[in-house]
Fold this sequence. Notes:
Layout: H1 2-33, H2 50-79, E1 86-93, E2 96-101, E3 106-108, E4 110-114, E5 118-125, E6 130-134, E7 139-143, E8 149-154, E9 159-165, E10 178-183, H3 185-193, H4 201-211, H5 215-218, E11 237-239, E12 245-247, H6 250-258, H7 281-293
Parallel strand pairs: 1-5, 4-10
Antiparallel strand pairs: 1-2, 2-3, 5-8, 6-7, 6-9, 9-10, 11-12
Helix pairs in contact: 1-2, 4-7
Bound molecules: dinuclear copper ion.
Amino acid sequence: MSWKVDAVYFYLSGVTLFFTLLISSVLIFFVIRYRRRSPYEIPRPIAGSHKLETVWTIIPFLIAMTIFAWGARVYFQQYRPPENAVEVYVVAKQWMWKIQHSTGQREINELHVPVGRKIKLIMTTEDVIHDFFVPAFRMKADVIPGKYTSQWFEATKPGTYHLFCAEYCGMNHSGMIGSIVVMEPREFDNWLSGNTGNQTPAVAGQQLFQSLGCVSCHGAEGEGGRGPALVGLFGRQQQLTTGQTVKADEAYIRESIINPQAKLVQGFGPIMPTFQGQISEDQLVQLLAFIKSLHAPGAQPAVPAASPAATSNAPANTPSPAKPR
Ligand code: CUA
C-alpha cells in the first residue's frame, strides 16, 4: 500500500519539477530573446491567440485530472477496509493510545500485529481530537470524539514502526507516541497466547448488556422484545419510523445507544433511555463488539474469527458467504 502513496507523491513531484524547469527556462529565454535593444524601441502590439489559450488550458486540465483520479483511487483503497480484515479497537485519550484486539488482549501505546494480515482499526477518542499516524505505513487518520473512524493496513515486513499522534491535543501531545510491532505469524501467536486473561470485547459487551439492563427490552440473546431485535442487525438495512432506511453500521449503533431517539426503528416507541455519560468509550466499543457478534442463526460471520491459529490470509476479494443483509 505504501508504494502506491509514494507513486502518487513522486508523480506529483515529477509534474511540479517538470513545469518548474519548463517555465523558468522559457522565462529566461524570453527575457534574453525579447530584451529591449535600443532606448527608442517600440514593441509590436499583440492581439492574443485563442488557439494558444485553449492549449494551455486543456493540457493542465488533463494533467490535473490524472492527479485527481489517481489520488482518489489510492484514497478509496486506503479508507475502505476489506471485509476480511481483523478488527482492532483503538480508543485515544490525553495522552495515550488504548488498543484492544478482538481476541481480548489490551495494549497501551503498542500494537502487535502479524505480518501479512489485513488489520482494520476502529478508532474513537474519550476527549479531544487525536490523529493516528504511522509514517512507515503511509497511514494517517483523525480520531474524533463521538464517532468511529476506520483505516486499515497490511504490514509486509516484520519490525517496529513509529506511531505518532498527529493532531495537537494538549500539553503532552508530543509524548503521545507508540509503536506498531509487526511479527512473524508464529511469534505473534506466541505473543497472543502469552497475553490472555482479558475477556474479548464481545464477551465484556455481553456482560454490560446484562448489567445495564438492555436484556429487559432487547432479550437475553438480543432476540428482541419491547426493543428491536439485535441478532443479525449489524450490516443490515434498518427500517425507521420516518420511512427511511439506515444501514446498521458502527456509527448507527453508537448513536442508538447514546441518543436512542435519533433514529427510531419502525414499530417501536421512544422508550429507550439514553446512555450518554453513563458508559465509557471502552464500554461502547464492547457493546458494539457484542452486537456485531450476534449473527443470525446459520449465517457466517462477516469478520473471520480472530483465533490465534487463523493466520492464513484469504485474498481481499473473497466475498463473505451468506452475509445477512
Ligand atoms: Cu493526541 Cu496529539
